[in-house]
Amino acid sequence: MNWLTPLLLFVVTWLAVFASTQFAPVTGVLGVPLTFVPAMIVYAALTSHLWLTTALTIFAALALDSLSANRLGVSVLPLFAAGFLIHTRRQVILRDQAYAQFWLGFGTAVLVPLATLIVLSLGQRDPLHGWSTVWQLALNGVFNGVLCPACFALFDALRRTFDYQPVAESSFRPDRQIKRGRL
Amino acid sequence: MRSPQVGSNEVFKRAHYWTLGTVTVLTLLLLNLPPSAAGRLKLGVSSLFLPLFGLASTGQSFVDRASYALLTRGTLISELERLQQENEQLRLAATQARDSLAENLRLRAMLGWQPKLQWKRRPAHVVAREPTTWWRSVTIDFGTRDGALINQPIITNEGLVGRIRAVGPTHSEVALIGDPECGVAAIVAETRDTGIILEARSSAVGDGYVTFRTLQNSPSVMAGQQVLTSGLGGVFPKGIPVGEIADSRSMEGGLYTEARLRLAANLNRLEEVWVIVP
């Protein structure tokens, strides 16, 4: 891994957090702001080192909290827990399979907000929740489930475009070359 | 003798424990920061997004200008005629309002009452919405350098939107009606029953309804009546339209009345708002 993958991950996460605060017509129709961050965390946890996953989850959580009415730091532990759990179990996850990516994206998008709600409920301010929360979680879950394979495809394409390419191996070996002499 | 595999596993596990411990300590530190320090840190992190806010508003104005170029001459002429008619009606209404205001001021002076304060409004754009589902808030491009202060009311031409919750140099965070931090003292225009607007039961902004609770049982509160700010509480000036009662019911064996209020301002379609400044 070189510097490019971490840089791309941070830039895309920065854009993803910003995108979560935009698209008013979509929010108006669906009644829920769509978040892109869980899919990013799943991708980072399955493909990157632990330090990068940790740094990315902290960055994403602080960025989300700074643009929302959350107390700063509320989202850190839930997002990190998701990234950490996926990272530690990634040897037993079929990470190249689209359905595995879908369910990881779905689960992360449902469980992270739930955990954040629990952390918030322990504080002084009681967050708004009700039956509509179930709909919001389900919608964000499906959205991130679909986004997760797309995220893998996007980053694979970016890496193919910008990263060092593996050297293609050839069957030709110079030491096996037949040198013909005079006799 | 330990195998190299066992040794590397231990190092791997130790790194995990260290990371877990560090993040837990960091979270506890952040959550226990004093509010002023947390606010400054939040402002610092959110400033990372200022270039994107600028880019988004530039893109929006570009799209607007491009859409103007697509309008046909016929559409523009019909719109001009409609605006001219509306302008004439508004001029007439303004003349009548000026007469009423002068009469009101004379009567107030005769009775020795204080003159009513006029609102001063400053325009602002909504640049970001709440990314979570459990708060109701938006961010506007109106900060301390424009004269923003905490608790300044935010309105649209239709009615009340909320109040400023936190301020930064260039942007402010607005708590919308229905958020737990935006209680509003209100009055029913027709019956003069006073009450408060409670936090929304649903976390969805899209439904456009909040709950209005009167201070005593008020059977005369009915669907279709207008609700305005009452001026009590000191945050919102008196007389800002809040919404219309959709339905009402008596609660707790007739102790008080609770009504569903359809908000006058569409909180989902907020683009331009007015900040009421002193």
Structure description:
The complex is a heterodimer of chains A (183) and B (278). Chain A is mainly α and 183 residues long. Helix content of chain A is 66%, strand content 0%. Chain A is built from 7 helices and no strands. Chain A is elongated, with a radius of gyration of 21 Å. Chain B has 3 domains: 4-66; 75-179 and 270-277, Rod shape-determining protein MreC, domain 1 (Thrombin, subunit H, Beta Barrel), CATH 2.40.10.340; 184-263, Thrombin, subunit H. Chain B has a 6-stranded antiparallel beta barrel. The interface between A and B is large, with 56 and 54 residues.
What integer value in Å does the Rg of chain B equal? 26 Å
Shape of chain A: elongated
Largest interface: A-B, 56 and 54 residues
Rg of chain A (CA only): 21 Å
Q: Provide the structure class of chain B.
A: alpha+beta
CATH topology of the largest domain in chain B: Thrombin, subunit H
CATH superfamily of the largest domain in chain B: Rod shape-determining protein MreC, domain 1
Order of helices and strands of chain A: HHHHHHH
* Amount of helix of chain A: 55-70%
Q: Work out the number of β strands of chain B.
A: 12
Strand order of the largest sheet of chain B: 1-2-5-4-3-12
Structural domain count of chain B: 3
Number of strands of chain A: 0
Order of helices and strands of chain B: HHHHEEEEEEEEEEEE
**Average of pLDDT of chain A:** 86
Low-confidence stretches of chain B: none
User: Biggest β-sheet of chain B, characterized?
Assistant: 6 strands, antiparallel, barrel
Q: How large a portion of the residues of chain A is in β-strands, by DSSP E? A: under 5%
